[in-house]
Amino acid sequence: MAETTDTTRKKSQVADINRSLYDFKMSEEGYERYADGLSTDIVRAISDKKDEPEWMLELRLKALAAYEEMEMPANWGPSIEMLDLNHISAYVSPKTKQASSWDDVPEDIKNTFERLGIPEAERESLAGVGAQYDSEIVYHNMREEVADQGVIYTTIEDALHDPELEPIVHEYFGTLIPMRDHKFAALHYAVWSGGSFVYVPEGVTLPYPLQSYFRLNAQGAGQFEHTLIIVEPGADLHFIEGCSAPKYYEANLHAGAVELFVKDHAKLRYSTIENWSKNMFNLNTKRATVGADSIMEWVSGSFGSHVSYLYPTTFLQGARSSCEFTGITFAGATQDLDTGCKVILNGPDTTASVDTKSISKDGGINTFRSSIVVGRRADRACATVSCASLMLDDISRSDTIPAMDVRNGSASVGHEATIGRISDDTILYLMSRGCSEGEARTMVVNGFADPVSKELPMEYAIEMNNLIKLEMEGAIG
Amino acid sequence: MSDQLLIIAGLSAGTEDKPILHNIDLTVGAGETHVLMGPNGAGKSTLGHVIMGDPIYQVTDGTITFDGQDVTDLGADKRSLAGIFLSYQAPVEVPGVPLYSFLRTICQMRPELKTTARKFRERVGKIADQLDIDQNFLTRELNVGFSGGEKKKIEMLQLLLLRPKLAILDETDSGLDVDALSIVSRGIEAYRKECDGALLMITHNTRILERLTVDRTHVMVHGNLVADGPASLIDDIDAHGFARFEDALAEKAEA
To answer: Is A316 buried (19+), middle (13-18) or exposed (0-12) by CB count in 10 A?
Structure first.
């Protein structure tokens, strides 16, 4: 078949992209990089550098002690034996100050974010952007009209230096995810760096989303950002996080923490498009607590990492609060993704709706765990979990592990799981209308992912379609 | 023979464990209308699928030449781009793929049909009107939740959009109510008139043929083409069925 036809046909689909979009490395020259492994000295050095209040240093040291004492998770999901924490640098930072104009960001870092399309998205459709490069935020900015409404969008480090914000951080930080939750939570609190602090005052609705983008450039490094979001009563926020990293042969570690506080009559949508490189151990913890008559929405697209442990958890505390979780994971060769969603329904008349899709190919493994807990007080609580898996070949794997713990007789809980393959009839049908086999498969997979991409803002939906296309092309090449 | 659009010569094909088609010879000239008839299980649909390039079937002998090119080893996508179209008995549902963007994609990949978004919208609108397809349908997912009649109309919509040189209609008329049948007939007529395309109709129902000028009728029994004749052969089959063709084949086999 002629090369030219192929090229023209590819272009007729969404925008063209290639691996280089994510997989490029920048030099680490002029970096500040702390020794691999963990010690009191390193923790103190991080705290010193950030000139933190005493309570934060104490919290870090306590977390370090907990980390040293706690066992690695055993008998849980995919193996993380390959992850040698003595060879991960906890803190790596480019020598640059945080800027509020892209012109002040060093050229190669600015280029990185340009290539990822962040400044463009900021101009077109975002209310504010934070960009983290390795351990530190290098850029932070928010539209003036949003700032005028009293919205705070900054780093936790900066908030700790602001006498008005420091007490708020102190009040909330680390209260939703306890440091002893698991070993990597303890690690996170010992060495956390970067991330975002968002405060939306009572009654304020943000017209556009805020976005933080996390880029891990350094080899053999860890990223431990902390995201703390407080949505006051009657407020409404859409927050987007994006993550990517170039591919190295050494393991990288991401152990971030996300704590979300949604008060009464409020709404928070938290969207994630994660495309870590395939040497990444993504052991991330996300948790939300939701007040009365409030809505928590998660939209999650997980494409990258070698191993993931990721189970966003929602506590529906207030009456009539609800949680909607829409997610997709894509596991290709060398990937073992253990993901899921946990909802604890404590308030009466609370509802949870979990809808996830997983795609496995080239030996990729997907495990989806759902956990629904209905508390004693949760009269008439209602939860539905639906999980659909698509396997693209015989060597891939997909498992669903649902758990339900219902302690209220008036609650209703439902679970449904389907596992399927792309039928030959479908491929023939699409091919007989002119699509190549690869295009036909990509079309079916994109269609399968459609309920998730519909939930994403346009640019991210396109990015997700491109990621799927990229993964699919890898299969056929 | 160079004026023939489709030349099937000595074609035998089947699945891995079962031969189905035996030594088929069939030619269709550009713009001609052919009818393929035969009892259930005779292999008519298989022949349609083999011409389209369905990989479930392996060609064990013979060749398929289309528009001067040997397509025997080509995939269904290449045959489609060359101008072959197969309308399915049961078009598949493809969740999450919006019908309109699917139509746009399959047209844009053909240099001769490539056009601006606006002109394309007009074209689709016009054809949809012609087939009594509600414009709201275009925003739905490809064939998902469509009734049998609706699916067939969407097949006709694709036929008229793609303007193939040869359309194989595999029992497009089966299971349709009177209204749907008349719309599908309208689509076939439009294809004959506007695209000047050739037709290979696989059907049991002679009613859909009433409004068409049939050039040639072929009869298939047990995977063999046993008769070839003018349009009047249809009336003959209508009156007497396939029994005599089956008997003739049995005698031939014994001899």
So the answer is: buried
Prediction ipTM score:
0.95
CB A154 within 8 A of CB A197: yes
Q: What is the pLDDT of residues B170-225, one digit of tens each?
A: 988 877 888 888 888 899 999 998 888 999 999 877 777 777 889 999 999 999 99
CB–CB contact A433 B111 (8 Å): no
**Residue B52 to residue A432, Cβ atoms within 8 A:** yes
A13 touches chain B (CB under 8 A): yes
- Whether residues A436 and B141 touch (CB distance < 8 A) is answered with no
Evaluate whether A198 touches A228 at the Cβ level (below 8 Å): yes
Query: Could you give the CA distance from residue B16 to residue B21 in angstroms, rounded to a whole number?
Result: 13
Average pLDDT, chain A: 88
Q: Report how many Cβ contacts below 8 Å link chain A to chain B.
A: 81
Which of B145, B211, B204 lies closest to B170 in space, CA to CA?
B204
A439 contacts on B by Cβ (under 8 Å): 77
Tell me the domains of chain B and their CATH numbers.
4-89+164-254 (3.40.50.300)
Angle at the Cα of A248 (from A243 to A253), degrees rounded to 5? 50
Determine the Cα–Cα distance for residues B64 and B71; give it in Å rounded to an integer.
Answer: 6
Residue B178 tokens, joined: 């009177």
Give the number of other CB atoms < 10 A from CB of residue B134.
Answer: 11
**How many residues in chain A?**
477
